[in-house]
Design goal:
Distance between the termini: 66 Å
CATH class of the largest domain: Mainly Beta
Structural class: alpha+beta
Strand content: 25-35%
Shape: globular
CATH architecture of the largest domain: Sandwich
Helix content: 25-40%
Number of domains: 2
Order of helices and strands: HEHEHEHEHHEEEEHHEEEEEEHEEEEEE
């Protein structure tokens, strides 16, 4: 006679196997996949990305950047947003999730991919996607700017001078891939050559910054624009912004650096601080991948407590 509670022969074995199967089955992680259909990456359509994510244990809801429903879809996301696009798409999505506990996954399909490069997330999609489900999570600080333009969250930088003028010139052009990068560097060279020293007063953590500057960029990441490393690698979870400054006396050195391909770190002066402010004459102001007509009234830029949780599927730098 079997001992009390043992049941019929074999029942315990069957139950154990059933429990093992249930425990080994991992529930797919729900996500919103925001796909920029105009970004590169060969034959990787949004549908193909979604299928690959399902095979990697993620159940995506696919929306197209610029479509009627992408903002509502991101706003309704509870756990994870995956962005398939370039820096502009990542920045737009980040601005909508930065005040919420939503994680960000990146599938870099843009031209510059500065954000992905700075984070070490730059590899073929067939290598990145299988690693997303179990990728380590890493905090990424988000910059915050206020002015008469309102409130603006940013990942890359905000600035005045030649880069802002170049972005304004190019922001309505429809370019992709290498053509966009080459055009961006050529436009910046032209802008630097004609840029007059800025009529603007700068402070870092309340201390005045004196000089005749052609470029002023408050930077959260090390790379901006057409793959240009304006500051050494930054600590993406650290407390400080970097202020990159091109002195008028270094105009020719900067042009030579760009003409030679922009390898290494640019010949700029670098400062660091938690709060950067400027005001001055009306001129273009760069907010990420767009330039606006700034009225010259005070702009306050800070690293406060804004961070997003980024999936880091290996370090591909």
């Amino acid at each position: 006679m079997p001992p009390p509670g043992a049941g019929q022969p074999g029942e315990g074995t069957i139950e154990t196997k059933s429990e093992a199967r249930r425990e080994s089955a991992v529930e797919a992680r729900a996500a919103t996949l925001v796909h920029h259909p105009g970004a590169g990456e060969g034959d990787w359509s949004g549908e193909r990305m979604a299928d690959a994510l399902r095979g990697a244990g993620i159940e995506p809801t696919l929306v197209e950047m610029g479509g009627a429903d992408w903002e509502a879809a991101v706003d309704a996301t509870k756990d994870l947003v995956i962005v398939a696009g370039g820096d502009g798409t990542i920045a737009a999505v980040t601005a909508r999730i930065v005040t919420r506990k939503v994680s960000l996954g990146i599938l870099p399909t843009g031209s510059g991919n500065n954000i992905a490069r700075s984070l070490g997330i730059l590899a073929p999609l067939e290598e990145i996607i299988p690693l997303l489900r179990n990728a380590r999570h890493s905090p990424l600080r988000v910059g915050h700017a206020t002015g008469t333009f309102g409130e603006h969250f940013f990942l890359e930088s905000i600035g005045l001078g030649a880069i802002a003028h170049s972005v304004k010139e190019l922001q309505d052009e429809k370019l992709d891939g290498d053509e966009k990068l080459i055009r961006g560097r050529d436009s910046l060279i032209s802008a630097i050559m004609v840029q007059e020293p800025l009529d603007a007063a700068l402070t870092v953590d309340g201390a005045p910054v004196e000089g005749r500057f052609l470029i002023v960029e408050a930077m959260n990441l090390s790379m901006i624009g057409p793959n240009l490393r304006l500051v050494p690698d930054t600590s993406h979870a650290g407390p400080n912004l970097s202020l990159a400054l091109l002195l008028a006396d270094d105009r020719e050195r900067m042009v030579e650096w760009l003409s030679a391909g922009g390898q290494g770190v640019a010949p700029l002066r670098h400062l660091q601080g938690r709060r950067i402010a400027f005001e001055g004459a009306p001129q273009p102001l760069r907010l990420g991948d767009k330039s606006i007509d700034w009225d010259g009234r005070p702009v306050e830029i800070a690293l406060d407590d804004h961070r997003i949780d980024v999936l880091r599927p290996g370090d591909h730098r």
